[in-house]
């Protein structure tokens, strides 16, 4: 059994959407953390990822938290609330309460919590001022709550102005690209006391990325999102966790 058993729960941010590999699979910051952790420590890391895109924060708790703890991890990462903040009537306390539950259950099970805030996509999105304001409030509220627990490992990505600029984001403007996911992974590894590759903080810009603009952006990305809201469906419906059981990541 590896000394580090790292499980990640959450939504598309943690699943890795936006960091698509040539074979169609998504990678993302959590996969990169497992890889970087094994490399930095020189020891194998057991890794699982139960995150599924499109999930609101309380379905993450209800569907992923207990299965993740049942794996008997040493470390559990949690981020949620990004999808909630895109809904018109979600309160900040509704999301912060979910972080409280994860913290309590990790305490009860003796698991080290890694708490993250998501990156800030607002500069590229419609209704950017509203999303910025709500994200600022949520990020501050979660940081304030976890500040009372210095033993919790934290990686705050929302305030990172560099990460919020367009070169770190995918075509849909809502999910980070490979560049963004590497930067988040570097921050998490640093918070863990591990040494990420220095290049992960700012990989070369992705120059061949296709960018949808104007009406094509709304047709390709905003329209499908609106249709899912109207029909009560989610991009994660019918999807299973990509790593629902332990895999071993070698140095």
TrEMBL record:
Domain (SGNH hydrolase-type esterase): residue spans on this chain: 8-182
InterPro entries: GDSL_Rv0518-like, SGNH_hydro, SGNH_hydro_sf
GO MF term (any one): hydrolase activity
This protein's record includes keyword Ribosomal protein: no
EC number: 3.1.-.-
The keyword Kinase is annotated on this UniProt entry: no
Source taxonomy: Bacteria, Bacillati, Actinomycetota, Actinomycetes, Micrococcales
The protein, known as: SGNH/GDSL hydrolase family protein
Organism whose genome encodes this protein: Microbacterium rhizosphaerae
Keywords: Hydrolase
